[in-house]
Amino acid sequence: PLRCMSKVRERVKHEPEKNKSQWKTMGPAKVAVPSPNDFLQKRPKEPKLAPKKKEQDVKRLLPLLPPRTYHPVIHIKKNFINKNAVAVITGEPKKPRHFCVDTRHGDKYLLEPSGLFPKYIKKKNYGAVPKCVTRRKEEMKREEEEYQARVLEQLKKKAMKALSEEERTNILKALKKKWEEVNCAYQSLPVLTDTTYKRMHKEELELELKQLEHDIAAIEKHKTIYIAD
């Protein structure tokens, strides 16, 4: 008899095989067996030398015999006896060495390395000032001059500047104007200072008036005024 068949029956059958992986099977994985020729050898990482050449190969590398027409270069023989005789005749004679004998048996020793021979006073530069000392003195003198020049430059920069008459008059006018403003504010204070703020404000104005009066008196008293930068 006819029965109901699902349309996705065939697709459901092949889905497990499609999603199945080789490493998700039961039992050990099927891996290729290593070849018996790939066994572990002794010192496999060391560089291998080239094989030794046979004797036949060595014989082949030998140079060929020269041809019959080859004539070797014949070196001229030197007469060392005559050469030495000429060198002795034309050469400078040896200077006698200084010895010192200090015993009755005739024992002697060289005078030059003993310290008794005055060889240093015969030098050309004996008693002269070494060049390194002269060079060092010149460098110290130049450094001292550069230092003095820097000090003078700093003193010039820090030197006081004299105010001109016009600047002095402008400053005096500005101080008097400021004094009038502060005095006007001081006169406007209330008679009763019953709070802390009023007392502090009155003291500040009094101090400012006193300082302004001091500055005005100092500028009026001195005609020439210097200021530092």
From TrEMBL:
Q: Where is this region: Disordered?
A: 1-55
Keyword RNA-binding: yes or no?
Answer: no
Q: PROSITE patterns annotated for this entry?
A: ENKURIN
Pfam families given in the database record: Enkurin
Record gene name: Enkur
Which terms are listed as keywords in the entry?
Cell projection, Coiled coil, Cytoplasm, Cytoskeleton
Report what the protein is called. ENKUR protein
InterPro entries in the cross-refs: Enkurin_dom (IPR027012), Enkurin_domain-protein (IPR052102)
Record GO terms (molecular function): calmodulin binding
For bias type Basic and acidic residues, the affected ranges are: 7-20, 40-55
| Compartments where located | Cell projection, Cilium; Cytoplasm, Cytoskeleton
State the species of origin: Sinosuthora webbiana
Domain Enkurin residues, every copy: 135-227
Query: What's any one GO cellular component for it?
Result: acrosomal vesicle
Could you list the residue ranges forming a coiled coil in this record? 137-169
